[in-house]
Write a structure and sequence with these properties.
The complex is a heterodimer of chains A (about 525) and B (about 425). Chain A has about 525 residues and is α/β, with parallel strands linked by helices. Chain A has three domains: about 230 residues, P-loop containing nucleotide triphosphate hydrolases (Rossmann fold); about 190 residues, P-loop containing nucleotide triphosphate hydrolases (Rossmann fold); about 70 residues, no CATH class. Chain A is built from 19 helices and 22 strands. In chain A, the strands form five sheets. Chain A has a six-stranded mixed β-sheet with strand order 6-7-8-3-9-10, sandwiched between helices. In chain A, strands 16-19-20-13-21-22 form a six-stranded mixed β-sheet, sandwiched between helices. In chain A, strands 2-1-4-5 form a four-stranded antiparallel β-sheet, covered by helices on one side. Chain B is mostly helical. In chain B, the strands form three sheets. A three-stranded mixed β-sheet of chain B has the order 2-1-5. Chain B has a two-stranded antiparallel sheet with strand order 3-4. Chain B has two domains: about 110 residues, no CATH class; about 240 residues, no CATH class. Classes of the chains: A alpha/beta (about 525), B mainly alpha (about 425). Chains A and B meet through helix 2, helix 3, helix 5 and strand 12 of A and helix 12, helix 13 and helix 14 of B.
């Protein structure tokens, strides 16, 4: 089926999310939609899928204009969508999720379980998906959940399949499997619209690339276009994709974690016997698929969880070593530990407060910003003026509400607050998630500057490319355990195996057979964390 | 990425398990009950005391059996059993054993000790009384008293599974009771009253749906406001219209009590379960049908998808808010039907605020039952039993202050819900507006 979008426009209030977009997807084509976060890719696909009503333009399938009042109409017309945040009910089985809305029923509306299972197994077998129809979705790994989503779309006879950022939650190996699946679907005649911001994947799988920036189509180009060119089209200016790092001058061990274990209330280990050392002026990056204990690790380090066992020892440049395990968050922060949380909207800032207030959130308890329970407005304003300037926070005024800032500028506020303190160790989670390219470059350079000052840094990131770009050493977490600590320059392939639960030595042995060497992925690695 | 899927964590290994804090809550609570049973009941019993219990057999020929227990011996025997299981609970807690086979230790041992405690209490309470404890009456009364709780819990679970928190069960029961009484009295036909009850409940359900789903008002606030509204409105009508026309309105119509042939003849169980009011039979069918439909039908699947992941439902073409509105109205109708219990089923005229907080207890029963109609039924029976204890003991002439006995159902509610909730999971998106 041939899909054509003509001048599709979508506004939210004054904001134009899609500005007269034209797009043609030929039958059996894999068409990549490339753009930064917030460029309007997802909005466009939600319009196509009937979730949003367009304010102008038309959608044509095989040259017939379509009017979708809801997703039901889009599905009936042969459009299926795999959302970035899966649209699966966690407490339902695979079969129940697949038949939801199109249930095979017997008398009195009772669901015909056998037919429901067949829906799944038939498609699963045809494409070699290997999915158990009776498994509960919440028990399945993310990669399998994604296949359930694809089965769901195919069971509705989708001829055009929209995949919204499908690789964001996958290991490199799972990504390869997905790419195989996409090629299989293409051969069976299904068109695929593949939304992404990762250049490498575009070049691997797409037949045609359309780049979107700020709600407008910048151009449609073949996938052979160079990465630098694609990145420039995405961002709108020349981008320096490389991270400039100076040579490593690690000092003495500054943060030492031994046998750290954290149990959840049911007694399962969310952190299982984790040990590592970070030297002053060293970056240890923690890679891994989201939800493997990284959040719990950093939250335990800053005192949000009390560890069930193990020690966390901080050796500041001056003074005696201190034990952090079991201490309160306040006293850990006071011991010169900085913390940049992974969900800044929830844990890092107070949206309703001003920029100036957010910049002193963790230092408001005493001088210089307060005394005898009263705030010192002058000191707070001076501090804000200085940091806004130094960290290039783009805001009308330091007294503006934080909620008015873009994601990148909000993150700069958090980074400014933490780095303005004198730190012995800095714990960072997802430093550039949802941050625009300009801010990414800036935040990375500030992190490396902090490393130069001799701070011990722990950085958690699910973007493998960010990990390889910043790290001096790379730890990979899987189900609450470290699969090993690999040196910088370890190949994606080995790291991917570790992310799937293979120990470092075994991964190294397997990776040596037919792996992608780092040198190759290094130059495009930088580009991959764009957006 | 807010994908919160986490890989199944590994089961605790032997060395990890020793890091877990032990939980002493259950054994401590059980020890208190065992000691209470020994000190308050067994030790205060005279050696010669006897407790008499009457049980209806159901078979018309035999009538009732009178059993006589030596109070002292039986109290100590039951206390010994309780002590044994309490000891087991201590041992299990010390060794961090939470399950034996499929049985969870806390719940199982707790139930056994709880039953033991109730039995010792009953034996003590009726010791040396002139009339025997009517055991069959105690159970069948408990079943009857739990009827509004069960209807309320069914209503609550329909609404919560679709994503709407229904605190207005109380108001729906009261509205159902009111309309059933009025229609029953005017038409002199209890059946028409029974038909009117769900209409009143559905109206309240519709108001809840309007504000909660259409206008995104906090569900709990709307629910409480509706309860106050219904209470005020029915009280006003009661003291004006109803009281001034007693000739028309205070004629109480009553639904018949049927004895089911054959089933009603089963010894002991027959008189409890199958010589009941018509509304009780409707309840049996209701729970059975709802349990199956909710988890095995298209209606149930769509209903639950709207409460668990409304956006997923929307993306497969299910109209989330329409589903929510319709099922909230259905829930209201179910609770309204339960309201008929207070008037036409019991053969009483309407009285001010006669639902007396049972809607809230119904909500507790639903939570205790883990949002499943089948299990909510058991929870409601527990509350009904606690409620009926005062009636049964009042007949025998027990010295326990009636105020204390009136507290019993609420105490049971608090302990049961506090002890068990947290382990069951509510529908993920209940109480959250779906804004498309």
């Amino acid at each position: 089926m041939r899909l054509e979008l003509r001048h599709v426009t979508k506004r939210f209030g004054d904001f134009v999310a899609n500005d007269a977009i034209d797009l043609v997807v030929e039958p059996g084509q894999i068409h990549a939609l490339l753009g930064e976060n917030g460029a309007g890719k997802s909005t466009l696909m939600n319009v196509l899928y009937g979730l949003y009503a367009a304010d102008g333009g038309e959608i044509r399938l095989d040259d017939k204009p379509q009017h979708f009042a809801g997703p039901g109409d889009a599905m009936a017309a042969g459009i299926g969508m795999v959302h970035q945040h899966f649209m699966l009910v966690p407490v339902f089985t695979v079969a129940e999720n697949v038949v939801l809305g199109q249930e095979p029923t017997g008398a009195l509306g009772m669901i015909n379980v056998k037919k429901a299972r067949n829906f799944v197994t038939e498609i699963s077998n045809r494409f070699g998906f290997d999915v158990d129809p009776d498994a509960l979705v919440e028990d399945l790994p993310v990669g399998v959940q994604q296949r359930v989503e694809i089965i769901k779309a195919l069971s509705r006879k989708a001829q055009i399949l929209i995949l919204d950022e499908p690789t964001a939650v996958l290991t490199p190996q799972e990504t390869d499997e997905l790419i195989t699946i996409m090629r299989g679907l293409k051969e069976s005649g299904t068109s695929i619209i593949f939304i992404t911001h990762k250049l490498r994947e575009v070049q691997d799988v797409a037949d045609q690339v359309t780049v979107i920036r700020a709600g407008q189509v910048i151009g449609t180009v073949p996938p052979t276009t160079s990465q630098t060119e694609l990145a420039e089209m995405m961002v709108g200016r020349a981008v320096d994709l490389a991270v400039h790092r100076t040579e490593h001058t690690a000092g003495a061990v500054a943060l030492s974690v031994k046998d750290l274990t954290l149990l959840d209330p049911e007694g399962r280990a969310v952190l299982d016997d984790i040990s590592f050392d970070i030297a002053a002026g060293e970056i240890l990056a923690v890679a891994g698929i989201q939800g493997n204990g990284q959040t719990e690790l950093i939250e335990t380090l800053v005192g949000l969880h009390k560890p069930s066992a193990g020690t966390i020892t901080l050796q500041p440049p001056a003074g005696p070593a201190q034990e952090l395990a079991g201490r309160s968050v306040k006293s850990i922060l006071a011991a010169h530990v900085g913390y940049i949380p992974e969900d800044r909207g929830k844990d890092g800032v107070v949206q309703g407060f001003s920029i100036a207030e957010n910049l002193i959130l963790d230092q408001v308890g005493g001088p210089p910003f307060s005394s005898h329970g009263g705030l010192k407005m002058k000191a707070i304003a001076d501090n804000a003026a200085k940091l806004v300037e130094e960290f290039d926070v783009r805001a009308g005024s330091a007294h503006a509400s934080l909620s008015q800032l873009s994601g990148g500028n909000q993150q700069k506020v958090v980074v400014a607050r933490e780095l303005s303190r004198d730190l012995a160790a800095l714990i960072v989670a997802q430093p550039t998630r949802g941050v625009d390219v300009g801010s990414i470059e800036f935040i990375h350079s500030r992190i490396l500057e902090e490393r130069g000052k001799g701070t011990a840094l722990l950085i958690v990131s699910t973007e493998l490319s960010e990990v390889t770009a910043l790290a001096d050493r790379i730890a990979v977490m899987f189900r609450g355990r470290f699969m090993g600590i690999a040196p910088a320059g370890t190949s994606r392939n080995v790291l991917g195996l570790m992310m799937a639960g293979v120990e470092y030595e075994d991964a190294l042995a397997q990776g040596a057979r037919g792996g992608t060497p780092t040198s190759q992925s290094e130059h495009d690695g930088g580009a991959e964390w764009v957006s | 990425m807010s994908t919160t899927t986490r890989p199944a964590p590994v089961a605790p290994e032997a060395d990890l398990a020793s890091l877990l804090p032990r939980s002493w809550k259950v054994p401590i609570a059980l020890t208190v009950f065992t000691l209470l049973s020994a000190v308050a009941f067994a030790l205060t019993t005279k050696a010669t005391a006897v407790s008499r219990v009457a049980i209806m057999t159901g078979t018309t020929g035999l009538g009732t059996i009178n059993l006589t227990f030596g109070t002292l011996r039986w109290s100590w025997a039951l206390t010994a059993v309780m002590a044994a299981f309490t000891g087991f609970a201590w041992w299990a807690a010390a060794n961090r054993i939470h399950q034996v086979g499929q049985l969870p230790v806390g719940t199982t041992v707790g139930t056994i000790v709880g039953v033991g405690f109730v039995c010792t209490f009953l034996l003590w309470a009726v010791a040396d009384k002139a009339s025997p404890l009517q055991f069959t009456g105690l159970l069948s009364g408990a079943l009857f008293l739990s009827v509004p709780l069960i209807f309320g819990a069914m209503a609550g679970s329909v609404c919560e599974h679709v994503g709407v928190i229904n605190v207005s069960i109380e108001g729906q029961l009261l509205a159902g009771a009111f309309l059933a009484a009025v229609v029953g009295a005017v038409t002199k036909n209890a059946w028409l009253g029974l038909l009117a009850a769900p209409v009143a409940g559905a109206l309240i359900g519709a108001l809840l749906a309007l504000f909660a789903v259409r206008y995104w008002v906090d569900h709990i606030i709307v629910g409480v406001v509706l309860n106050v509204l219904v209470s005020g409105l029915t009280s006003y009508l009661f003291s004006t219209v109803l009281s001034q026309n007693t000739a028309v309105f205070s004629v109480a119509a009553k639904l018949p009590t049927w004895k089911i042939p054959l089933l009603g003849e089963i010894p002991v169980l027959g008189p409890v379960l199958f010589q009941q009011n018509v509304l009780v039979y409707i309840m049996y069918v209701g729970v059975f049908v709802l349990q199956i439909m909710m988890f095995h039908s298209r209606w149930g699947l769509r209903l639950r998808s709207c409460g668990e992941h409304p956006r997923a439902a929307d993306t497969v073409g299910i109209k989330v808010n329409r589903t929510r509105v319709l099922n909230t109205i259905l829930g209201g109708a179910i609770a309204g039907l339960g309201g008929a219990y207070f008037t036409v089923a019991a053969g009483l005229a309407f009285g001010k605020d006669m639902s007396g907080g049972r809607g809230y207890i119904a909500l507790a029963a639903m939570i205790l039952g883990g949002w499943r109609p089948k299990a909510a039924l058991l929870a409601a029976l527990l509350f009904g039993f606690a409620d009926n204890l005062q009636n049964a003991l009042g007949i025998v002439g027990v010295a326990v202050p009636s105020q204390f006995m009136l507290m019993a159902p609420y105490l049971v509610t608090i302990f049961a819900v506090a002890g068990l909730v947290g382990r069951v999971r509510a529908p993920a998106m209940e109480g959250k507006a779906y804004k498309g």
